[in-house]
Amino acid sequence: MIEINNQLLDTLAQQASASPRKRKNHNFHPEAGDPIQRMLNALNPGTYVQPHRHISPLKREVFILLRGRIAVLEFDDRGAITGHTILDARTGNLGVEITNGAWHTLVVLEENSIVYEIKDGPYFPVDDKNFAPWAPSENAPGNQCEQYLNHLLLQLPL
Length: 158
Known about the structure:
Order of helices and strands: HEEEEEEEEEEH
Number of strands: 10
Number of helices: 2
Structural class: alpha+beta
CATH class: Mainly Beta
Strand order of the largest sheet: 1-2-9-4-7
Largest sheet: 5 strands, antiparallel
Oligomer: single chain
CATH superfamily: Jelly Rolls
């Protein structure tokens, strides 16, 4: 039995806070080839998840909020937001399933936010994600990622 408890969440949140990427994941699946990828993702404001989609093959992706507050966005092929939800236990919005093949990202709104993520496997880093060409890459120079996150936040009714 795998337990998800406050001790695990606290440890993961501490690791995310200490990480230069402002996030940390904890895998429950035993190997990358597992047909169902299951993990915790601890994230902090300012972490940048480049918009991406899973198309080769199509994969479902589910986020269930355990702590904090996170915006989940979907986009069209030009980068326009086509849908969003704010995951927040205080409002009763606890989870979301991403449309197969949809461009999407997460924007973290509260420190030490944690989601349980479920995604079809297997995981092969070479083709797991198809990154959006209209958004900066995670390693873009200067403050492009920060500017893009701010651009997204300005479009959301927070």
